Amino acid sequence: MDLANYVQFILALIFVLALIGLLAWAYRRFALGQKLPMMAPRSGRLDIVEFRNIDAKRRLVLVRRDEMEHLILLGPNSETVIETGVETQSAAAATPRLVGDKP
To answer: How confident is the model at residue 43 (pLDDT cuts 50, 70, 90)?
Structure first.
């Protein structure tokens, strides 16, 4: 192999690495595939509080709407509401309780 082949190999390597860097930048910039809780908070009424992967195909998502939270099970072919109307922690802490009330 002569010097021209080595230079061609190095230039091709630099091109491929630059292309990978460009794709990684575009992936992060346009939030392709990024999980929603990692995104910047918004000032709307709807928010995803937390999520947990159950297995490769199912995920539990806790969604907040105004002051209520809803627990939803998401699958590849279905969505199931597990629990709805759950008060947020801040709303539950602000609600006064009587002495005999159980938590």
So the answer is: low
67's CB contacts (< 8 A; 6+ apart) are 87, 88, 90, 91
Show me where the domains of the chain are located.
Answer: 1-34, 35-103
Contact present, 70 and 51 (Cβ < 8 Å): no
d(CA 62, CA 48): 6
Residues 6+ apart with CB under 8 A from 45: 65, 66
Q: At residue 11, does pLDDT exceed 90?
A: yes
pLDDT at 33 over 50: yes
pLDDT score recorded for residue 102: 53
**Pair 88, 68: CB distance under 8 Å:** yes
CA nearest to 51, candidates 72, 30, 26: 72
